[in-house]
Amino acid sequence: MKTMASSEVVGRERKHLNLLAFDIGGTTIKHGVVTAKGDILQKGIDVTPASMALLFELLQDIKHRYAANYTLSGAAFSTPGIPNQATGFIDGGSALSYLHEVPFKQKAQECMQLAVSFENDANCAALAEMWLGSARKMKDIVMVVAGSGIGGSIIKDGAIHRGANGYGGEFGYMVMNKHGETFSSITSPVELAKRVSAAKRANIDAIRVFELAEAGDEVARVEVDRHFYYLAVGLYNLQFTYDPEAILIGGAISERNDYIPRIYEKIDLLIKANSMVDLRPNLWKCQFGNDANLIGAVAYFNQSFCPKPEIAG
């Protein structure tokens, strides 16, 4: 088994690096060996542990699985929350409260005995698309990821725009109406499923909610229509706030073939009803799906440790 310290990574040619990439989510941890050029050599998935101690035990186990077959040059993490590159902590909040209690980067370095980078999950998805995916030839994009909440990222002139307080791209906190409902609480597929489940007194996921709506279920139909309306409002506002080349839509629910067309239907109604400027956001589906965060974590590792990382096409 061979691993590499941080000092050995700097200056090493990217083509020789195999990186251990992690996408830490609220329910699962996706992981894999990814070359520094973005090729996934092997990947897997495990259930997210219930504590920090168990998490680091799992990370060590995953490392040993891959290290039997690959020389690992570093560990690249995609995480929820707001990674603080100065302190090593993950600021903000997430479904994994224990992630925010310790200096994650330093603890991960001790655990993995590798050079470590960490970046927000939505930022990772955006970097993946800028590097090798749908937005490869673009410099200014917005990423919106619909899942347990609404994640987001702003890429400005080819680099992550974090803002003065590190909350750049945290679109889920936007207040959408006079009732104080946020972009996340209204448009998150998970929250959508919770509302329909409560109304029907059943355990229904978001995919099933859309199926019920298509079948004519009135409760599901109303909630899905509301989902698309507020999604259109949020995306239209983002277009005029930042005016990106494209807004990329991610998350499992966005894989539906009718997802972007239905957003456009609501945007067109907004434009018509309010005599707005006839500027439609350029909406794109993400190319890499569930692999985006792994690839984007490696993109950020390249930026952090390797010379001239060529993140944008």
UniProtKB/TrEMBL annotation:
Annotated signal sequence range: none
Transmembrane segments: none
InterPro entries registered for this protein in UniProt: ATPase_NBD (IPR043129), ROK (IPR000600)
Family: Belongs to the ROK (NagC/XylR) family.
Protein name in UniProt: ROK family protein
Protein source organism: Shouchella clausii (Alkalihalobacillus clausii)
